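Sequence in, structure out. Go.
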Amino acid sequence: MNIKIEPQDFDSMWMTVPMILNYTSIFVFKDTEKMRTYLDLLDKILQDGTDKSDRTGVGTRSLFGYQMRFNLNEGFPLVTTKELHLKSIIYELLWFLKGETNIKYLIDNGVGIWNDWPFENYKKNETYQSETIQEFAKKIKEDSVFADKWGELGPVYGRQWRHWEGLNGVKVDQIVDLMTQLKNNPDSRRHIVSAWNPTEIGNMALPPCHCLFQFYIADGKLSCHLYQRSADVFLGVPFNIASYSLFTYMIAHVLDLKLGDFVHTFGDVHLYHNHIDQAKLQLSREPFPLPSLHFRRQINSIFDFEYDDIEIRDYQFHPKIKAEVAV
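Output:
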């Protein structure tokens, strides 16, 4: 017996006639619940967070110590209660993997999520002529000399992932080492990459927020655990979930592994005060089913992925919600 049940009927039907739901109906109901893990965090901060001052002057409502877990076999964990800019998520990860630290690569590919920090630095210089951030980005795109000077963020993620500088100037490519160890020593407990380099923090435009991650293989499944010291839960965290989940998919593809979990642990996780209304709007929306992620070709090296290799299918989402970045 197949009975069609509309989504709005689930709340009442679930309690009164559970036996008539076929398997497909149950799956659809549960599928819309998966990103409630993220929405629960938003709600927890609103209800139980502490108001704090912060370096940006905006102020936050904050919690300390929180963890989320996503089973990557249940769909690709993209937030659906607002639209995410997939191009920014994908190109940023590729930028990290290239070991780059200049925003020109991102701007050349239509991504502006890192523009605010070098623009703020540029505005402090005497050559600044009241340009808008859009004019600044245009200069970065068109003038390589200007980009070399003003588009640089310092030794941020890409530098630490691919060119960590240790004692006596010895450089360590943590991603190459990670891939080698995952392949040759899968049961190791040392599949760790750190972006937190205390000797170079002072030279970074923004010290790493998602600062350490670890991979784990069991039963042929690859899982990732990210520690994030500081997390802008409205703007940043949806990107972080998607980025590290994508990274896990990519490594699993290259190494012919199955998917496990993405585990996301936070230190200071916060809503900026000027994001509270946006968070409440997001909480009023019902999630859609999760999309799926596919690769368009077989790829044998983590460094060979290109933007067009990555396909997100069936991504349904509510409209964008605008919010200012606190710099």
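Check: The radius of gyration is 21 Å. The CA atoms of residues 50 and 62 lie 5 Å apart.
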